[in-house]
Amino acid sequence: MKPQDRLSDLAPPFAEQEILLSREDLLGMTKSEKEDAVPVLASLLRAHIEEAEWPLPPLPCSLREAVDSLKRGEVRKASLYLKAVFPSYWAAADGPSSSFLREGILEKVLPYRVGLNSAEECFDITLGEMRRAAEVQRKTVSFFSPGKAFRLYRKYLGAKTEPLVWDPSGGFGGRLLGFVSAYPKGWYFCNEPAKMTYMDLTRLGSYFSRCSVERLGSEKGNAGLEPGSCDLVLTCPPYHDKEKYFDEPGQCWRDYPQIEKWRESYVAPTLSHAHRCLKSAGLLVLVIDNIDLWHRAARDQGFVLLDSAPLAPKRDHFLRASDSSGAKEYLAVWRKRA
């Protein structure tokens, strides 16, 4: 029996490392056989997701080890830790446990994995391997690295020992973990409106005595922060409707579908709350896509732009030169107008 013929005998749910087709199987198959196997594999994987939860990655280390690795400049372990304890990262609307259910998505991811590529590179087809494929082939939502957060906090907070920061868009824990690793005696406040992400953030924050997570959109306020109390506001706000995390109240793309409404009802009040809570010498640091929109809005709320620069284009195995989408991100820094 040919390897691909055995697929008809398989039935979900599958174990994490159960091999549906092995690399050795694929190396022995013709191009036509691989093409025929793709829709069968896609159907099996979709059936698994419908029947069972998307498998989280195994824990690479303890939380303490993740924190210590950031302090040593070893950033990968901390990122892997967060992805293993944040189900919301995988469950977001553009993440694999949701997007793989849509017709056509797996059919775009699988061809490379089965060897339908210029290098004829093949991989074992397992749930774990498909999870990795989702990331390297950009079928997950964006993720703010705790290593990047650690470096930014150190750069803009310097020698402070007990700084207080506000993160208007908590996300998948990268900035929380980066901050507590850089400033273990500091205070971290964040907003996160998405229910599942809020629960993940609250669970992570519970291990640190000076972390507070509020389930509220940043445009609604930052309760608990006194005027002039923050040393730094650092975040990566939603890019309007470019990524749709969850379909629930509190999501920008859902609440403010028109760009002008989003600017008036989300961007402006978020910046107003940032201005209110910052100390006179405090800084606002944002990773954003629309530099002109945010600059105009920040100026209207009493901020002065100190610096802005495009971030390096994303590079990976599939986009060797740069992100072919043409999307740009910027790091921008403001201070309060004197």
Give a quick rundown of the structure:
The chain has 338 residues and is of the alpha/beta class. The protein has helices at residues 23-27, 31-51, 63-71, 76-85, 87-91, 96-99, 105-113, 127-136, 146-157, 174-182, 195-205, 252-255, 259-277, 291-300, and strands spanning 164-167, 187-191, 211-214, 230-235, 278-288, 303-310, 330-336.
Set down the secondary structure blueprint.
Elements: H1 23-27, H2 31-51, H3 63-71, H4 76-85, H5 87-91, H6 96-99, H7 105-113, H8 127-136, H9 146-157, E1 164-167, H10 174-182, E2 187-191, H11 195-205, E3 211-214, E4 230-235, H12 252-255, H13 259-277, E5 278-288, H14 291-300, E6 303-310, E7 330-336
Parallel strand pairs: 1-2, 1-4, 2-3, 4-5
Antiparallel strand pairs: 5-7, 6-7
Helix pairs in contact: 2-7, 3-4, 3-10, 9-10, 13-14
Describe this protein with a few key phrases:
338 residues, elongated, 14 helices, 7-stranded mixed sheet, 7 strands, Rossmann fold, alpha/beta
Report on the architecture of this protein.
The chain is of the alpha/beta class. The protein folds into two domains: 3-58 and 84-136, no CATH class; 146-336, Vaccinia Virus protein VP39 (Rossmann fold, 3-Layer(aba) Sandwich), CATH 3.40.50.150. It is built from 14 helices and seven strands. It has helices at 23-27, 31-51, 63-71, 76-85, 87-91, 96-99, 105-113, 127-136, 146-157, 174-182, 195-205, 252-255, 259-277, 291-300; strands spanning 164-167, 187-191, 211-214, 230-235, 278-288, 303-310, 330-336. It has a seven-stranded mixed sheet with strand order 3-2-1-4-5-7-6, sandwiched between helices. Strand 1 (164-167), helix 10 and strand 2 (187-191) form a beta-alpha-beta unit. It is elongated, with a radius of gyration of 22 Å.
